[in-house]
Design brief:
The complex is a heterodimer.
Chain A (H helix, E strand, L loop, with lengths): L2 E7 L3 H11 L5 E4 L16 E2 L10 H20 L3 E2 L3 E5 L2 H16 L6 E4 H7 L9 E5 L3 E3 L1 H14 L3 E3 L4 E6 L4 E5 L2 E10 L5 H7 L8 E10 L10 E4 L9 E4 L5 E4 L3 E2 L10 H14 L8 E11 L6 E5 L4 E5 L5 H16 L31 H6 L6 E3 L4 E2 H8 L8 H8 L12 H12 L1
Parallel strand pairs in A: 1-2, 1-12, 2-9, 5-14, 12-20
Antiparallel strand pairs in A: 3-8, 4-8, 5-7, 6-7, 10-11, 11-12, 13-16, 13-17, 13-18, 15-16, 19-20, 21-22
Helix pairs in contact in A: 1-5, 1-8, 2-8
Chain B lengths: L1 E9 L3 H10 L7 E4 L15 E3 L1 H4 L3 E2 H14 L3 E3 L3 E7 L2 E6 L2 E12 L3 E3 L15 E3 H10 L7 E5 L3 H12 L3 E6 L9 H11 L3 E2 L2 E7 L6 E6 L5 E5 L2 E4 L3 E3 L2 H5 L24 E3 L10 H19 L9 E5 L3 E5 L2 E2 L10 E6 L7 E6 L2 E7 L9 E5 L13 E5 L1
Parallel strand pairs in B: 1-2, 1-8, 2-5, 8-19, 10-17, 11-12, 11-17, 12-13, 20-27
Antiparallel strand pairs in B: 3-4, 6-7, 7-8, 9-18, 14-15, 15-16, 20-22, 21-23, 23-26, 24-25, 24-27
Helix pairs in contact in B: 1-3, 1-8, 4-5, 5-6
Chain lengths: 456, 412
């Protein structure tokens, strides 16, 4: 049985970021993921926005870490090629009450250290987003809000971790925890391992794992968010992220461009009990259609490319729950909601700060360079457009997925990457293959064949 | 790199291949067919059953045989067929960006024929809620899996839709050893031809439920059941199955038409064309199921033959006449193609207007009116039915006043 200095449980964005950071020290680190692939839980299905943190609750840990994470991930994205589009956001007020709330929101943003917001009138709202439905009274700009690729972020962090020597254990669901004097033994569905320290970044499963450590301090409620993704031809309708003015009923439904060139409408917010309930619902889709018809009627005439549902790990409080238990050599990273995509790298820093007194976290010399990730973003050059790449390797000219223009070369590269996909779904997230408007009508059979051929 | 050709045909299906075969002998210069799949032939390639070629080749052959025959005819006529060549966008009015294993290049053409066809809307576009398990396919993907890739499908299938292509899905499923336990249709009765329908039911023992919609797909990992609702009573029940095929519900592959700035028709979702199949952009033409989603392969092929005349006139320097009278389909007619009648223009392909109806009418009567005046009225011996194209003679609107308002087509 392997004994590690640290086992990080959860291969989502937060767990991968922590493993990457700890992997840069002299410690031995395992990244333990219950599913067959990294980023297969909450991290794969969020709204994929790089948040400034303008609307966080001032003074919270979340507020601080989102603001810090925004800078960290922005820089990391440049270094690794994670696509980011600096679209900016516009909060639109549709009622007098919402309009009156805008100065308060601007003041709140300033308390969060974000000073770039501006209040604009209705004419300016329609100048920025001409396709908006009638009735907008004004708005608040958030120039820094951006769209990002959540899949590539997760993969870059996990790949970087592996390159730094972290042992990635996929398909290892932790089922029992045995605490010893020097190390904790973790029983998983694929064998046992032990670690001196355990970091719980298990997302939706964080409360269950916490209970294995004998705690009873919070419950993760899966909050389902359903989303509609519209065809790329609709993208000109949404030049920036259109946010509702938050109310007591939550953050509401937004219209956002996606990094892949689509338009997204959603999410709904519905507290469930089943942590595997990632299906869409009749009521949810109907609600989104009604909402969309008000927000952007022209969008509703466009084709829907995908519908999906993601689950946020809601814990019934307004902040992250990050807590170190020195006696158990155990650290909980719980309640990381959709802002975790932005905050992930800052959460890792914060975790390292907490661990500093207990472990030697000096960065070791000669770390490998950050991985250069394949670009999945529509706004940046892709292999099918790259004459030099195709000349050097004709496989980059062989388009397999027509809707997303994914080439055979990219699929091959993904299958041979540091963290190869465990299934066709994972291949989708690494390449966009089968993610387009035809959803596999043309390429589904061929992609599956390529995938299985390479598996043999 | 830029290549110059006389005619670029985008799409190597029945319409594109037939257009190329018709044009190549008469055009001084290259007629280049750009096909993004590894083989030309289009959808018939994976429809491995008879039923192709009746109207254009006066033959009755299987889909793959038809695809091979059209490919050979185009090649023998002197057209250049390039496969694995995808047109990804426009670099100018008739300049195409092309990606292939041979490189990235621009193709500049004197005339462009868009023949990009149509596809079925997949499950998300139909907003069918529920889990997202494996085993949910369109007919196209199913046939691709079974006929071209020889893959296993499940044992018990529910087919959503009861159109012609839905029965084609049933055939494919049967060949793959998968029983169709239920077909659902939201219409009052299944859409496919009655003549095909009854033998189909008898031969396959398929239960067809009309006025039924699918309200959920269930299963984690693999489909385990679907929930269906009776539209009359609102009652719901669960049907165990491991495969779901969403059939029909067509949309043109209109990406290039839209990104090229062509005027689009809000009803077909394809480009608006006149009876010669000219689009709103000079030198850009369209043919096949991009214009009428979806008609049979041979009708698409005949469009390809029809468009050639207009392409040749354009290459000879004849301008497309301006003006014209728009045709408008009124509910329960969903769309009409072509949409524009120009003074002095030719009759449409086969002398017929193509329409799509969202309701059943046996012995339907179609009326054409212009500015309140009845232009013509015709009672047809064939039914109007959802799920397939319904044709009326062009003579119905031939007397339209070129200076008048839109001609409205209505179903009585």
């Amino acid at each position: 049985m392997n004994t590690y200095d640290v086992a990080v449980i959860g291969g989502g964005i937060v767990g991968s970021a922590i493993a990457r950071l700890l992997g840069g020290t002299a410690l031995s680190v395992a990244l333990v993921e219950a599913r067959d692939d990294v980023g297969d839980g909450t991290s794969k299905a969020n709204t994929a926005i790089l948040h400034t943190g303008f609307d966080a609750k001032p003074g919270t840990l979340e507020s601080r870490l989102v603001a810090r994470g925004y800078d960290l991930l922005g820089r990391y994205a440049e270094a690794t090629g994670i696509p980011v589009e600096r679209t900016g956001a516009l909060l639109v007020a549709w009622t007098r009450e919402q309009l009156d709330a805008l100065p308060g929101l601007r003041a709140k943003a300033e308390r969060n250290g974000y000073t770039a917001c501006e209040i604009v009138d209705a004419a300016e709202v329609y100048r920025r987003v001409p396709a908006l439905g009638p009735g907008a009274l004004g708005g608040l700009t958030v120039p820094g809000e951006s769209v990002i690729c959540t899949w590539t972020t997760n993969l870059a962090l996990a790949t970087d971790a592996v390159n730094r020597g972290v042992r990635l254990l996929r398909g290892h669901r932790v089922t029992a925890v045995h605490r010893g004097p020097d190390a904790t033994r973790l029983v998983t569905t694929a064998g046992e391992l032990s670690a001196r320290w355990v970091v719980n970044a298990a997302g939706l499963g964080a409360d269950a794992l916490d209970a294995l450590f004998g705690h009873d301090r919070f419950t993760v409620t899966p909050r389902r968010g359903e989303l509609l993704v519209f065809d790329k031809l609709a993208r000109p309708l949404a030049p920036c992220i259109v946010l509702p003015v938050p109310s007591s009923a939550g953050k509401g439904v937004l219209v956002s461009p996606t990094i892949y060139g689509n338009v997204m409408l959603g999410p709904t917010a519905e507290d469930l009990t089943d942590k595997a309930a990632t299906g869409t619902s009749e009521a949810g889709l109907e609600f989104l259609r009604e909402k969309g018809a008000e927000l952007m009627p022209r969008l509703m005439a466009e084709e829907v490319t995908a519908t999906y549902a993601g689950l946020r790990a809601s814990i019934g409080r307004d902040d992250y729950l990050i807590d170190l238990d020195a006696g158990q050599r155990y650290l909980l990273v719980g309640g990381i909601r959709s802002t975790g995509l932005t905050a992930g790298m800052a959460i890792a820093e914060h975790v390292a700060d907490l661990l500093k007194g207990h472990l030697d976290l000096v960065e070791r010399a000669g770390l490998p360079a950050p991985p250069r990730m394949p670009n999945l973003g529509e706004a940046f050059p892709r292999p099918y457009q790259d004459a030099a790449a195709i000349a050097a390797d004709p496989e980059y000219g062989r388009v397999v997925c027509f809707c997303e223009r994914v080439t055979r070369g990219e699929i091959r590269d993904a299958l041979a990457s540091v963290i190869p996909p465990a299934g066709v779904e994972g291949l989708r997230r690494r390449t966009r293959a089968m993610n387009g408007r035809c959803q596999g009508f043309y390429c589904g059979a061929r992609v599956r064949e390529i995938f299985e051929g390479e598996q043999k | 790199m830029t290549e110059r050709v006389r005619v670029a045909v985008i799409g190597g299906g029945p319409a594109g291949l037939t257009a190329a075969a018709t044009l190549a002998p008469s055009v001084d210069g290259d007629v280049l067919v750009l096909e993004r799949e590894p083989e030309t032939g289009g959808i018939p390639r994976h429809s491995d059953h008879p039923g192709y070629g009746l109207r254009d080749l006066r033959r009755f052959v299987s889909g793959p045989a038809y695809a091979r025959r059209l490919t050979r005819r185009a090649r023998d006529a002197g057209a250049r067929l390039e496969t694995e060549a995808m047109v990804t966008g426009w670099a100018g009015p008739r300049t195409l960006e092309v990606t292939s294993p041979h490189g990235r290049r621009l193709v500049q053409a004197d005339a462009v024929v868009l023949a990009t066809g149509a596809r079925e809307r997949p499950r998300p576009a139909r907003l069918i809620p529920g889990d997202r398990p494996d085993g949910v396919y369109t007919t196209g993907q199913l046939q691709n899996l079974v006929h071209l890739h020889h893959r296993e499908v499940g044992r018990r299938a529910v087919v959503v839709g009861a159109e012609l292509v839905s029965w084609s899905a049933v055939l494919t499923l049967r060949e793959a050893g998968c029983r169709t336990v239920l077909m659902t249709s939201e219409y009052e009765r299944p859409e496919a031809y009655a003549a095909f329908h009854l033998p189909g039911r008898l031969a396959f023992g398929v239960l067809v439920r009309a006025r039924t919609r699918i309200v959920a797909v269930n299963g984690r990992g693999r489909v385990t059941s679907v929930d269906i609702e009776d539209l009359g009573t609102g009652r719901r029940r669960r049907v165990p199955c491991d495969t779901v095929i969403t059939t029909g519900d067509w949309i043109p592959d209109h990406e290039l038409a839209r990104t090229g700035g062509l005027e689009m028709d809000a009803a077909t979702l394809g480009p608006r064309v006149d009876t010669s199949l000219a689009t709103s952009l000079p030198g850009v033409f369209a043919a096949g199921n991009l214009l009428h989603p979806v008609d049979t392969a041979d009708v698409a092929a005949l469009d390809g033959r029809h468009v050639a005349a207009a392409v040749l006139r354009h290459l000879a320097g004849d301008p497309v006449p301006g003006g014209g009278v728009p045709l408008v389909a009124e509910a329960p007619l969903r769309w009409v193609a072509p949409q524009l009648v120009r003074p002095g223009g030719p009759p449409p392909s086969r002398g017929r207007l193509l329409l799509w109806a969202d309701a059943f009418r046996t012995l339907p009567r179609v009326t054409a009116t212009q500015d309140g005046r009845v232009l013509g009225r015709v009672r047809l011996p064939w039914p109007a039915a959802p799920g397939r194209v319904f044709r009326v003679p062009f003579s119905l609107v031939a007397d339209a006043d070129p200076a008048g308002g839109p001609v409205r087509l209505s179903l009585e």
